[in-house]
Amino acid sequence: MMWKFLLPAGVFAILVGFFFVGLSRDPSQVPSPLIGKVAPTYSLPRVEDTTQKVSSSDFAGKQHMVNVWATWCVECRKEHSVLLEIAKKNVVPIVGLDWKDELTSAQIWLAQLGNPYLATAFDEKGRVAIDFGVYGAPETFLIDAEGKVRYKHIGSLTMDVWEHEFLPRIDGRIK
Amino acid sequence: MSVELGHFALILAFTLALVQAFFGLVGSYARQEHWMAAARSAVMGQFVFTLFSFGCLTDAFLRNDFSVLYVANNSNTELPVFYRFAAVWGAHEGSLLLWLLILTVWSFAVSVFNRSMTPFFTAKVLGILGLISAGFSLFIITTSNPFERLLPAALQGADLNPLLQDPALVAHPPMLYTGYVGLAVPFACAVAALLEGKLDAAWARWVRPWATVSWLFLTLGISLGSFWAYYELGWGGWWFWDPVENASFMPWLMCTALIHSLAVTEKRGLFKSWTVLLAIFGFSLSLLGTFLVRSGVLVSVHAFASDPSRGLFILAFLTICIGGALTLYGWRAQHLKSGAGFAVISRESFLLFNNVLLVVAAGLILLGTLYPLFVDALNLGKISVGPPYFSVVFLIPMLPLVLLLAIGMHAGWKQAKFNSLKRSLLIALVVAVIFAALLTLVVFKRFSLLCFIGLIAGGWVLLSSLIEPISRLRAGYSLSAGIVAMSLAHFGVGVFMLGVTTVSTYTIEKDTSLSDGQSADIAGYTFTLLNTESVSGPNYEAVQATVKVTQNGEEVTVLYPQKRIYRVRTSPMTEAGIDAHWQRDLFVALGDDLGNGVWSVRIQYKPLVRFIWLGTLIMALGGLIGVMDRRYRSKMVAKQTISQPIQVGP
After folding, report:
1. Which of A7, A74, A101 is the best residue to mutate to test the B interface, defined by the most B CB atoms within 10 Å of its own CB?
2. Of A151, B222, B442, B551, which residue has the fewest beta carbons closer than 10 angstroms?
3. Which of A144, A155, A174, A123 is nearest to A39 (CA)?
4. Of B444, B479, B451, which Cα lies nearest the Cα of B605?
5. Structurally, how many domains does chain B consist of?
6. What phi, psi does B551 have (nearest 5°)?
7. Mean pLDDT, to the nearest integer, of A70-74?
8. Do A18 and B333 touch (CB under 8 A)?
9. CA B624, CA B223: separation in Å to the nearest integer?
């Protein structure tokens, strides 16, 4: 008689077990579909000098990072000093992707805050960012020598992220 | 400074919740009047301090105090003041504070409106509410503190999620939470009844209005959310079967079942253990909803907070609350003796069917919602269960439910005799069939069996709900609030059903691409894109299209759909252009800029779509009238005679 009434509690106990297992997994960590795939190609005007072009083919065979930023992005301003520091270490070149921005503000930004980028591509309409699946600025991609996306970081970079997520994934690093 | 005061007030509220729990429960067992009085004072104090704390957070938002992490993450100097206010509950921490505030309001209400119950029972209820409140405030303080400082302060805030920058979404969370949290009261009453081992008609009569008010708010909150999704998400759908929506819908189903079961318990002294179980399920599903949304065990378009440590806390809390209540149920429910029996065909058995079907529906939704979690936990990969499952599976219990409803509401208690009503019911059915046939064959000229059945069911419920009030009025009786409430709510179900069936079968939609001057035709309407221009709002830039709609060469309306880009979060948002009319909506949403002035455009013709929300509003109105019923407010409730089943002349 009493067991009938305990049934709901029993079912609930099983549910709790599943929830507990479920907690240790991260459903949002559906990895970026790009990881392990060849990075999108692009050819865009260069922010520093729009008569020149920045193309993905310029970096073929080289490991590099692609950092998506914009002058309207407050987080990017915070991230900028980290980028400068990473650039100083000279481990991998950083390519900038200036996203949906105004050219002059972007040029002033680089002149005033310093330029950590090997080159910065000007993605005025955001087309290339769409190919990269950019969700918001800043985002940073690590692309290997074969041109494949190896890692993607969403949000501003910190030295901590750099050391723990990027450095271990970089081949033949000097350290 | 006020931020620290708010934080401090929150901690005080937590300690007062502990006081409330201790003096309420222990005081009731020890039969100490003073202790129980202390619990009531603690309720009031907790309410005041939580309100103060909430006020401090609101103040921080209005002042753009970006030295508060939560404010910096969810506001911006460009955010209009109205939305800064709404931003208080725009993300995890603040919405939990709102949850807590609403719980203290409900507890306060319980501590005031309890004349018909014994002080010992009330003290137990307050004690249990105190435990829930203590758990929640501890959760906020330890894992989700909205008052956390950000030093050095941010220069600018990250802005409120653009999805939430909408008038409907300002009101949606408070409504929904009021409903969610309101279910804590029937839950606490059920647990208190299990503790006392006593559950009588007075108990059911007292619990009913609490359940009805929660139901009312849930109904409004869910429909508001669905209405928002309709015009804001840009594809004209009104329900997604998204885990977060399911999380709000399951408590609604349970609460609906609870309201009906309470009626039986009140009038006939039956279904006692069933009523208690439903009250526990209702609040459990509310908590589960909070857990699912907050812990990140499931992904959803709505999930804006997920953090495993929070998840673990909520899981522990869930286990204590629900597990505790269900174990108590297993131990004590057998002592809740039910009264006399009833015949197979009677109002009781119809209501029992209703309850079983509602619970089955909620169970199927729960299964679908949690299925991805089960699969993932068993290492079978990651999957998602979508509308194809839910739409089909939901119909299975719902169609019989609606058909039973048409008859069931006329069944008498104990043993139903339908002879007197057979004619009216049959006439209603015939009218519904004719109506369904006309609509499918003549108006829309396309027959679908499922739609035909759906229309008959909807039409029948709608007409059948009018039989009782009309025959009462004709016989010269006045209508009691209870009858009006029931008839209205069921009428609303009929209206809703008609809307849903028609929209899901006869919506015409077209995805096309248009440049200036080009047009597209659907359902006899011609949509012409006149031009697109840039407009700016306070914190967004938008492209606005001007779309003229004509029918047979005559202008019907001009629509202005927008595609907005919010400056800070840079996420694109769609503002659909909608021409609303009782019998159809014309819907235009802008898709992507395809270059050279060409835009992808989605146009839709949605017949009777307004009936969906009209139906839910009528249901809610029914609930409101039910709560107003004087019977529930009278001090002399216990002496009132139980109303007799109606006898209507031929």
Report:
1. A74
2. B442
3. A144
4. B444
5. 4
6. -135, 125
7. 78
8. no
9. 16
Q: Is the domain A35-169 a CATH 3.30.470.20 member?
A: no
Burial of B419 (0-12, 13-18, 19+ CB in 10 A): exposed
Determine the angle formed by the axes of helices B243-268 and B167-182, rounding to 10 degrees.
Answer: 40
Q: Which residues pair with B622 in a beta bridge?
A: none
> Quick one: pLDDT at residue B461?
92
Spatial CA neighbour of B212 closest among B629, B639, B643: B629
Check A24 against B158: CB less than 8 A apart. Answer: no
Of B296-305, B401-410, B607-616, highest mean pLDDT: B607-616
For residue B44, report the phi and psi dihedrals to the nearest 5 degrees: -60, -45
- Cβ burial of B635 (10 Å; 0-12, 13-18, 19+) is exposed
pLDDT at B301: 35
ipTM of the complex: 0.75
pTM attached to this predicted model? 0.79
How close does chain A come to B517, measured CA to CA in Å? 24
Tell me the CB-side half-sphere exposure of residue B379, using CA atoms within 13 A: 0
Q: Which residues of A touch B570 (CB under 8 A)?
A: 100, 136-137
Q: Do B362 and B218 form a contact (C-beta atoms < 8 A)? A: no
Output the furthest CA–CA distance in chain B (Å, rounded). 81
The residue type at B432: A
Clarify whether residues B318 and B208 are in a common domain. Answer: yes
Is the peptide bond preceding residue B388 cis, with omega within 30 degrees of 0? no
Of B525, B591, B603, the residue nearest B562 (C-alpha): B591
Chain A residue numbers with beta carbons less than 8 Å from the beta carbon of B319 are 16
Domain ranges of chain A: 35-169
In the block, residue with structure tokens 């549910």: A15
A28 touches chain B (CB under 8 A): yes
What is the band of B179 on the pLDDT scale with cuts at 50, 70, 90? very high
Report yes or no on B641 lying in a domain: no
Inside any domain, residue B647: no
Residue range B436-450, pLDDT digits in tens: 999 888 888 888 888
Is residue A55 helix, strand or coil? strand
Report the residue of chain B nearest A24, measured CA to CA.
Answer: B308
Helix (H, G, I), strand (E, B), or coil: what is residue B139?
helix
Tokens of B589: 């949403």
User: Could you tell me if B384 lies within 8 Å of chain A, comparing CB atoms?
Assistant: no
Instruction: Based on the fold, state whether residues B400 and B436 are members of the same structural domain.
Output: no
For residue B650, being part of any structural domain is answered with no
Mind listing the pLDDT tens digit for each residue in B530-542? 988 888 888 888 8
Between the two ends of chain B, the Cα-to-Cα distance in Å is: 73
Q: What percent of chain B has pLDDT over 90?
A: 42
Range of the domain at B41: 1-165
Residue that is written with structure tokens 């081992």 in the block: B197
Nearest CB to B330; choose among A9, A16, A100: A9
Quick one: B178 and B249 in the same domain?
yes
Backbone angles phi, psi at B531, to 5 degrees: -165, 170
Does A18 contact B377 at a Cβ distance shorter than 8 Å?
yes
Chain B residues whose CB is inside 8 A of the A19 CB are 291, 295, 297, 315, 318, 373
Q: Do B322 and A26 touch (CB under 8 A)?
A: no
Residue tagged 């009047």 (tokens): B33
